[in-house]
Design a protein that fits this description.
The chain has 219 residues and is α/β, with parallel strands linked by helices. The protein has two domains: 137 residues, Response regulator (Rossmann fold, 3-Layer(aba) Sandwich), CATH 3.40.50; 61 residues, Winged helix-like DNA-binding domain superfamily/Winged helix DNA-binding domain (Arc Repressor Mutant, subunit A, Orthogonal Bundle). Helices cover 51% and strands 13% of the residues. It has a six-stranded parallel sheet, with helices on both faces. Helix 4 links the parallel strand 4 and strand 5. Helix 2 runs parallel beside helix 3, helix 7 crosses helix 9 and helix 8 crosses helix 9. The radius of gyration is 17 Å and the shape is globular.
């Protein structure tokens, strides 16, 4: 039986590249695709793929939230994160949310089919560079201030860093405005931040977002 794979990435060209690569494999078939967070969740429930290949930078709630939603509905879900984010904190958060594998897009293309096979067999798969960073972090400690955030706080931090308002964050994560606002307050307290500009600059410093544009003084 071939491994039934779903692709979730917001770039059609990237998905086409993944499809072309995986179509060369006799034991892998693509059964569904998605280009944002909500469609990734609903397409997963509709098609029940053996493996979901998921980018973290999905429009909407983001990939981490998708992992949490899917694993809540299907604790046995086999999710392989395939992303541009090579920050070890992203890998740690993805694994905590329930992902079974983590591979960065700058890896050798031949690693993707093998990672899918490993995850489909119920094994965990981790890119070598990320694995080494995780080991170093657990043995030497973690001085990244973002590690102070809970899983949900980190998701909201990432969305805020991408420019979403509290109202937009609430809508994307399907929570109330008050809940989202309370999370933002706790995030700023934990990280000792006073303005949105400081939040964006911290996100840039730790690889969460690209170089920040000019930001106003207050949120």
């Amino acid at each position: 039986m071939p491994i039934r794979v779903m692709l979730a990435d917001d770039h059609a060209v990237v998905r086409a590249g993944h499809r072309f690569l995986l179509d060369q494999e006799n034991d892998i078939i693509i059964v569904a695709e998605a280009d944002d967070s909500d469609s990734a969740y609903h397409q997963y429930l509709t098609h029940a793929p053996d493996v979901l290949v998921l980018d973290l930078s999905l429009p909407g709630a983001g990939g981490l939230a998708v992992i949490r939603r899917i694993v809540t509905r299907d604790p046995e879900a086999k999710i392989l994160v395939f992303t541009m984010h090579d920050e070890v904190l992203y890998a740690k958060r993805a694994l905590e949310a329930g992902a079974r594998g983590y591979l960065t897009k700058d890896a050798d293309p031949d690693l993707l089919p093998e990672a899918i096979r490993q995850v489909a067999r119920g094994k965990n798969y981790m890119a070598d560079a990320i694995a080494r960073q995780l080991v170093a972090q657990y043995t030497q400690g973690d001085d990244n201030p973002l590690a102070l955030l809970t899983q949900r706080e980190f998701e909201i931090f990432c969305l805020a860093a991408e420019g979403l308002s509290v109202q937009e964050i609430a809508a994307n994560l399907h929570i109330s405005y008050k809940t989202a606002a309370n999370y933002m307050t706790r995030i700023k307290q934990k990280l000792d931040l006073n303005t949105l500009g400081e939040l964006v600059r911290l996100a840039f410093l730790h690889g969460v977002v690209g170089k920040p544009a000019s930001v106003g003084k207050a949120e």
